[in-house]
Design a protein that fits this description.
By secondary structure, this protein is an all-alpha fold. The protein is built from eleven helices and no strands. It is globular and about 70 Å long.
Length: 253
């Protein structure tokens, strides 16, 4: 069985188990707030054939995807520098440690004022939240490199660039991608929050709009859409990690 078929089978089993649990819970509650899975699933499949659904899906996908890419592009090099240089870590570390615990979502009103009500503020808040996770994880990953690997490169006549390319970068990439994959759920959660107001597009908007109209079947169409989008982003990050960090896959064989 190919890897793609195994993955499709595992996802199918998960959907089946969750569907059974959903059915039990829906029958137990007997409330319209939690429609039966077949009814919600049927509405979701019908929505897949509409342009309106894909417009909202695409709007959310672009916001979350761009946010994740920008977070990685900005935070990973910074984490690499801080982890590889004690001087840079001593200079920048206090800024990170002081600002990391601050809940970044509270800055959304500020970003909306500064960047406007468009996509820029929504993407910026995802970058801000996910970027810290990538930065801290990458920095800690580089700092955990045993000095003997650095000494080995130096003993062979390698310079700083060799140490960066041969030791620090290979050590940091898996940590950065792990943070990116784990950040998928965070990105989708933040996306739902930022699409809850000041917009008329995106799956988060669809969910809140349907909730306001008490159209719970349509609400679950948006929820299922967000689940599919989150899984797609996770798989994309996982595929990118396997391509970039191919030596790790070879080591597991």
């Amino acid at each position: 069985m190919s890897g793609l078929a195994r993955k499709a089978l595992s996802y199918g089993l998960v959907v089946l188990v969750l569907g059974l649990l959903w059915q039990v819970l829906s029958a137990s509650l007997g409330s319209a707030v939690l429609p039966p899975p077949l009814e919600a699933g049927g509405a979701f499949i019908r929505a897949l054939g509409t342009t309106e659904f894909w417009c909202h899906f695409w709007a959310s996908f672009v916001r979350a995807g761009l946010g994740m890419l920008l977070a990685f592009a900005l935070a990973f090099p910074l984490g690499l520098v801080m982890g590889g240089s004690r001087r840079a870590d001593a200079l920048l570390g206090p800024f990170v440690l002081l600002t990391y615990p601050v809940p970044k979502i509270v800055l959304l009103p500020v970003l909306l004022v500064l960047l406007g009500l468009g996509d820029a503020a929504k993407i910026a808040i995802i970058v801000l939240i996910l970027g810290y996770q990538v930065l801290v994880t990458t920095r800690d990953g580089v700092r955990s490199v045993h000095p003997k690997y650095v000494d080995s490169v130096r003993s062979l006549g390698g310079g700083r660039l060799d140490i960066l390319l041969e030791v620090l970068l290979p050590a940091a990439l898996p940590h950065g991608f792990t943070a990116l994959r784990l950040g998928t759920g965070v990105s989708v959660a933040v996306l739902f929050f930022v699409e809850s107001f000041a917009t008329t597009s995106g799956l988060g908007y669809c969910i809140m709009d349907a909730w306001g109209r008490m159209d719970y079947v349509a609400m679950f169409t948006g929820i299922l859409g967000m689940s599919v989008m989150g899984a797609a982003l996770y798989e994309a990050a996982d595929l990118l990690e396997r391509r970039v960090c191919a030596w790790m896959r070879a080591g597991r064989r």
